Amino acid sequence: MKILLKKNAKPGFPVQISKNNIAAHYTPLPNDSAAIEKGDVVKLDLGVHIDGYIGDTALTVEIETNNYKDIIDASRKALDAAISVCRPGIKINEIGKVISASIPKNLKVIKNLTGHKIDRYILHSNLSIPNYDNNDKTELNEGTVIAIEPHVSNGVGLVRNGKPSSNYRLYNISKNTRDVIARDVLSFIKKEFITLPFAARHLIKKFPLGKINHALAVLEKDEILYQYPQLPERDENCVVSQHEHTIYISDPVIVLTK
Q1: Active-site hit among 62, 94, 233, 244
Q2: Are 101 and 121 part of one and the same domain?
Q3: pLDDT given for residue 1 in this prediction
Q4: 132 neighbors 101 (Cβ within 8 angstroms)
Q5: Structurally, how many domains does the chain consist of?
Q6: Domain containing 124: what range?
Q7: Residue 244 annotated among the catalytic residues of the structure
Q8: Is 184 a catalytic residue?
Q9: Are residues 98 and 188 in the same domain?
């Protein structure tokens, strides 16, 4: 965090530390006691923004063992393959086709997780970048910024909605609440994060935990905030690997998070 602030940057979203079959959206709760252990396959997904311009990147590491090198290598190679074909005019489904074609036959891409277009203060904008050929013929124009993030598993290749994640974003920026406590927290969220995702722990330095929990519950119930669910693979015994870069579409393509 000190490095980010020194460079006039801020987190683009809460750091995600998703283990094993959890593909995405695990970020620590306040006072979280979860630990990373030997043998875990850990996805580290993080983002940084300067004035709302976001870089989103991820990698996967295996802790002190080497049992899942093939899965980890697969998502990394799929990302490299996808980046290599990106250029102005490429169709979205062509990127997905390259990703899925690069995956070994004994593994699967996760079809219901995608990359995404990125706009200022909007992490997930109006285009999804698939991990397979979804027949979307939309062409990418020069100057478009996208995040490509192949997720690969040795499971069924699909995720489901899991437990609450403590990842939130402002869902209805114009709506307010009658709850005085929640209104105070909401004012801070609008000023500090605007439309970017944040975590409950990001509010700790400003508010006591009891006030945070009350406010988040009220704001979610009032449909002012949206809380992302954790996204486990449907196969609880599998592992998932992810690699990601944010790129600028040009000829040649520019990798912004290298």
Answers
A1: 244
A2: yes
A3: 67
A4: no
A5: 2
A6: 2-161+235-255
A7: yes
A8: no
A9: no
- The reported pTM is 0.93
Residues 37, 157: one domain? Answer: yes
Report the percent of the chain where pLDDT is more than 90.
Answer: 91
Q: How far is CA 205 from the centre of its chain?
A: 24
Question: Same domain for 195 and 105?
Answer: no
Shared-domain flag, residues 204 and 93:
no
State mean pLDDT over 24-42: 93
CA distance 9 to 48: 7
Q: Which of 49, 116, 151, 245 is catalytic?
A: 116
100-115 pLDDT tens trace: 999 999 999 999 999 9
Residue 149 appears among annotated catalytic residues: yes
Question: Is 116 a catalytic site residue?
Answer: yes
Instruction: Please name the residue ranges forming H helices in the chain.
Output: 2-6, 69-85, 92-101, 180-192, 209-221
Q: Which of 25, 45, 62, 151 is catalytic?
A: 45
Q: Look up 45 and say whether it is catalytic.
A: yes
Q: Of 40, 73, 119, 124, which residue is the catalytic one?
A: 124
Alpha-carbon span 258 to 247, nearest angstrom: 9
Instruction: Please check the confidence at residue 232 and state whether its pLDDT lies above 80.
Output: yes
Sheet holding 10-19, edge to edge: 10-19, 41-50, 53-62
Which candidate in 56, 62, 94, 233 is catalytic?
A: 56
Q: What is the pLDDT of residues 177-190, one digit of tens each?
A: 999 999 999 999 99
The pLDDT of 240-258, averaged and rounded, is: 97
**Same domain for 148 and 53:** yes
